[in-house]
Design brief:
Blueprint: H1 7-17, E1 39-43, E2 48-52, H2 54-59, E3 70-72, E4 78-79, H3 87-93, E5 99-105, E6 110-117, E7 120-124, H4 128-137, E8 149-156, E9 159-166, H5 167-180, H6 187-204
Antiparallel strand pairs: 1-2, 1-3, 4-9, 5-6, 5-8, 6-7, 8-9
Helix pairs in contact: 5-6
């Protein structure tokens, strides 16, 4: 007969069976281990985000650094409470949900519109006339830095909020909503996450000064 393992042996077995902790995140350029929140780079060639350490983030803030493939996502939050994004402008965007973010894609040479969905970030075709309508309605459109910033629009409760934010946060929002999405309209958890996200953006965003320029 095999005797039962001791309590100490049980603890050892539990440690052996426990899943290994996930490996630490590292800078995708130099391999430096990253702690907590960190900066991101946009890989303009592959249309992807890359994690970056402070040194690499600083390096690629310079225009054209590294041949221009990587660009550091800036930490800029702007808002335009005096915009004129009415129902007519929103309808021209042809976005089926109440959230959209617009990106100036330098490689494509045009602005693209995306919105969160159960599948993640979904692209909606944006014709030049619709983009011009947005430019006419908010001064933030002309401050948008290609590839690394997003013009974030939120339509709800009889109003539309308009913010300029780092593009990594726009993708973070769509990823979080994809995980929480339930049913046709997203469900209560997704709506709560969306409300928290926009409350945080509203706290951080400032109106642009008249002399504000693209970074």
């Amino acid at each position: 007969m095999v005797s039962a393992p001791s309590t100490a042996a049980h603890r050892g077995l539990r440690r052996f069976r426990a899943p290994a902790p996930p490996p630490p995140e590292r800078c995708e350029l130099c391999g430096t281990e990253l702690a907590g929140r960190h900066r991101h780079l946009v890989d303009t060639r592959n249309r992807a985000l890359a994690c970056a350490c402070p040194h690499c983030a600083l390096l690629f803030e310079r225009p054209g650094a590294g041949g221009g493939q990587f660009r550091t996502v800036p930490d800029r939050f702007l808002t335009d409470p005096g915009h004129h994004l009415d129902d007519a402008v929103w309808d021209r965007l042809r976005i089926p949900v109440g959230v959209a973010f617009l990106l100036d894609n330098a490689a494509l040479g045009r602005v693209v519109a995306l919105y969160p969905s159960p599948a993640g970030a979904t692209e909606s075709e944006l014709d030049p006339a619709a983009w011009q309508a947005v430019r006419d309605a908010t001064r933030l459109a002309d401050l948008l830095t290609p590839d690394v910033e997003a013009l974030l629009l939120h339509r709800g409760d009889g109003r539309t909020d308009c913010h300029l934010i780092p593009v990594d946060l726009a993708y973070e929002l769509t990823g979080r909503l994809r995980l929480l999405w339930r049913g046709f309209d997203g469900g209560a958890e997704a709506r709560a996450a969306l409300a928290d996200f926009f409350a945080d953006i509203a706290r951080r965003a400032r109106e642009p000064r008249e002399e504000a320029q693209r970074p």
